[in-house]
Amino acid sequence: MKAAIAWDQAHHWPVRVYYEDTDAGGVVFYANYLKFMERARTEWLRELGVEQQKLAQESDIGFVVAGLDIKYCAPARLDDHLIVQTTVTQAGRASLNFAQRVVLANHVIAHGEIRVGCVRLSCLKPAALPETLLNRILNLDKR
C-alpha cells in the first residue's frame, strides 16, 4: 500500500495552455502533458538550486526518463490555467521516482508516476546522484 501524498506540500508550477499545445479539436494533445510535467520537474530542480546545464558541464551528469505511467482523466483546452504538482516519492542512489499531477480548477485532469535516472552524459551509464542534490531532496521530507 502506498503512503498518501501531501499534495499541499508538493512543488506547484503554473502552466497556461497555448494554441500550440492543442490538437485540431482544441484539446491539449496528450503528449503535451508530458512536456508540462518535464518543465515542472526542471523548475523543481531550479528551486533546489540545481541548474541542469551547469550540472552537465561541471559534473557530466544528466537525467533521463526511465519509465512512466500516466492517466488522463479530463481534457484541458486553450487558455486554461493549469497547475502541475510535483513530489518525489522515492530517492535511490541513481534514480528518483516522482508523482505528478495536472490540476485544472481544483480538479485533477492527469496524473502520473515518472522514474528518472541519473546518468554520466559522456557514456549514458547510470551515475550516483550528486550528494548535495540527494541531501536537499532528503531534507524536503523533514519539512
TrEMBL record:
Residues 25-104 form the Thioesterase domain. Keywords: Hydrolase. It comes from Orrella daihaiensis. Belongs to the 4-hydroxybenzoyl-CoA thioesterase family. The gene is ybgC. InterPro entries: 4-hydroxybenzoyl-CoA_TE, HotDog_dom_sf, Thioestr_dom, Tol-Pal_acyl-CoA_thioesterase, YbgC/YbaW. The keyword Hydrolase applies. This is Tol-pal system-associated acyl-CoA thioesterase.
